[in-house]
């Protein structure tokens, strides 16, 4: 039962996220307004698929909690891909916020975003993460998430300061805040307390909520 329910949730999420992103990215009437947002949704959805599909396979095989070498490798690689694409999502969201709100970006802000992004990618690429064995330690999980958390804070603050006047995005900052509130316990405690990993489900719902904001905004007149 868990395999069908959880996998069904993953399928609905991936179809919705990628579909919404493609709709915003490819629609000529919305392209100028929402292309960056659409690209961010597609990137996030495609990246998440690399992790969620092997996870669904493990659920149906009954090997998710004790995966064999092949599944562990795919789960680890999926987490690596998701770590990178999730970072890219926030970079695109950063640029979208300023384009959509009309606020002016600062060189310091852009520089901080790219420094943190580069640090995140480099830390994720280091072999100590144990991606191929799906066996990352708390140390490496914490280390690679430090720049990601700081990047999230920058985007959250930018959303709070720049786009709250746009009706569709007035709660974007809250969705970002909640996504990290659900994500961080997984980073720090999931290895010791298995049920904490279930917080990734409401985290995923926060991303779906963000995509809904973009779809709602695409129907509004600027």
Outline of the structure:
This protein has a single domain (2-218), classed as Rhopdopsin 7-helix transmembrane proteins (Up-down Bundle), CATH 1.20.1070.
What is the C-level CATH assignment? Answer: Mainly Alpha
Indicate the CATH architecture.
Up-down Bundle
Number of helices: 7
Binned, the helix content reads over 70%
List keywords for this structure.
single chain; mainly alpha; Rhopdopsin 7-helix transmembrane proteins; globular
What is the secondary structure topology, with strand pairs?
Layout (H helix, E strand, L loop, with lengths): L1 H25 L4 H31 L7 H33 L5 H19 L12 H25 L9 H18 L10 H19 L4
Helix pairs in contact: 1-2, 1-7, 2-3, 2-7, 3-4, 3-5, 4-5, 5-6, 6-7
Structure write-up:
This protein has one domain (2-218): Rhopdopsin 7-helix transmembrane proteins (Up-down Bundle). Helices cover 77% and strands 0% of the residues. It is built from seven helices and no strands. Helix 1 (2-26) packs parallel to helix 7 (200-218). The longest helix has 33 residues, at 69-101. It starts with a helix and ends with a helix.
């Amino acid at each position: 039962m868990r395999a069908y329910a959880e996998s069904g949730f993953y399928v609905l999420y991936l179809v919705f996220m990628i579909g919404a992103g493609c709709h915003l990215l490819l629609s000529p009437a919305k392209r100028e307004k929402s292309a960056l947002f659409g690209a961010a949704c597609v990137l996030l959805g495609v990246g998440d698929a690399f992790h969620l599909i092997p996870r669904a396979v493990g659920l149906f095989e009954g090997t998710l909690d004790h995966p064999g070498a092949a599944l562990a490798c795919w789960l680890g690689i999926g987490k690596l891909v998701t770590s990178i694409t999730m970072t890219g999502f926030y970079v695109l969201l950063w640029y979208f916020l300023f384009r959509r709100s009309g606020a002016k970006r600062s060189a310091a802000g852009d520089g901080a975003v790219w420094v943190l992004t580069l640090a995140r990618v480099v830390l994720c690429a280091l072999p100590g993460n144990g991606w191929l064995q799906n066996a990352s330690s708390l140390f490496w999980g914490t280390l690679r998430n430090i720049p990601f958390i700081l990047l999230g804070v920058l985007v959250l603050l930018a959303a709070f300061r720049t786009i709250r006047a746009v009706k569709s995005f007035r709660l974007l900052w809250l969705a970002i805040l909640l996504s990290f509130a659900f994500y961080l316990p997984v980073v720090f405690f999931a290895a010791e307390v298995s049920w904490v990993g279930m917080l990734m489900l409401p985290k995923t719902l926060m991303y779906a909520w963000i995509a809904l904001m973009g779809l709602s905004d695409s129907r509004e007149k600027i």
